[in-house]
Amino acid sequence: MNIALKSPPIPGCDIPAYSPSGNECPLFESAWSRQLPLLLKGPTGCGKTRFVAHMAAKLGLPLSTVSCHDDLAAADLTGRYLLKGGDTVWVDGPLTRAVREGGICYLDEIVEARKDVAVVLHPLTDDRRILPLERTGELLEAPPGFMLVVSYNPGYQNLLKTLKPSTRQRFVAIEFDFLPRDREIAVVSEESGLDENRVAPLVDLAHRLRSLKGHDLEEGVSTRLLVYCASLVDSGVTVRDAVLATMIEPLTDEPDVKSALIEIADAVIR
């Protein structure tokens, strides 16, 4: 079943800037129009969340974003009974609210949530598109304008936190990565206000540090951190201090590794 655009972008409403790296935008639109759930995978800070915000605004859809964590349980998404003024009332969670009203429900870093979350999502991610609410006895059918989007970072997967194949195969999947050098320079310059010529060595340093991922570092420098760094430089902070605060300190607490990263930074940022 195809569905038309629910509502056009609101006049005067800003659409978050996003620089496509491939065909992810038409893929998203096609998945939404065919009522298919979407899985975004890629390293931290590569633009997954910005992409969802961009597409939601572009399609004129309400967006509910949930940052998943170790204590996030299914009830946090579906809802629970709460005491209000001496009465016990049911309060919808963000997932239930999105299913009732339509729009995009985005679960960021889904593998961080408790295992019971996947169980709740399963009937929403097949042809049934239903959300059973055991506490209220309701069986909600997702409207045509509802879309479920989840994301995770494959680099963080381990034996305890993985997305099961049975869950992954319920989604259309799009892989994200960092932009090519010239594109990333342009994006960081646009976001921070710093001239591209001054952004270029910062991006070069980020590429050097990303090559260490899996060796001395668990994760590389994100585009988000690059924007932070360029923003500090643009505000008058010295390049070395900005690099230390945004591209080295957030990556490691190990003194030896930190010293090695500083040496690399000093060699690249002259």
TrEMBL record:
GO molecular function: ATP binding; ATP hydrolysis activity
Every CbbQ/NirQ/NorQ C-terminal domain range: 184-268
Entry keywords, A to Z: ATP-binding, Nucleotide-binding
The ATPase dynein-related AAA domain, residue ranges: 37-171
Family in the record: Belongs to the CbbQ/NirQ/NorQ/GpvN family.
Protein's UniProt name: AAA family ATPase
The organism of origin for this protein: Sinorhizobium glycinis
